[in-house]
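Reopening this one. Same input as before:
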Amino acid sequence: MAINKVITLLNAGKTVAIFPEDRISKTGALMKVYAGAAFAATRTEATIIPVHIDGAHLTYFSRVKQLYRRRLFPKNRLTILPPEKFTENTALPVRERRQDAKDKMHRLMMEMSVAARPRLNLCENLLTAIKNLSLPNYWDTNRHVVLLS
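Same output, byte for byte:
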C-alpha cells in the first residue's frame, strides 16, 4: 500500500525521501535493500538523488551503541552523488523487472558507500577506528605503540 502512495506522489511531481533498507541498521553496515523504492523509481522514471548520511551511528539514538563510543553532537557528513535514473526493461516479466530494479538500487547504494568513505591511509584508518570504538578510558593513541601483523 505504501509503495502505491509513493508512486502516486512521484507521478504528481512531488519529491519523496526513501530509505531503501526499510529499517535502522543494527550493525552500522549496509543492510538488505528492498525492491519497493527501486520499483517505484523505475516505474515512474523518477530521478534518484543518492545521499549518504555518515556519522548518525555515533548518536545516542543509534542502535549500534555497543560498537561505537556515542557522542552528544557527533559530526555528520552528507555525501551527495550525481542524479541517476533507472530505466525499466519492459521485455522482462514483472517479477524480474522488480528484481532488476532492486539490483540496480543495491549497486547504487554500494557505490554510494564507497564514494562516502574518506580517503585515508592505513595508519589513519587504524587511528580513526581506535578513536571511534568503545575502548577503556586509559587508552590514549598518543602514548601507545600499535603493532600490526
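So the earlier flakiness isn't reproducible anymore. For the record, Strands lie at 47-48, 51-54, 77-80, 84-85.
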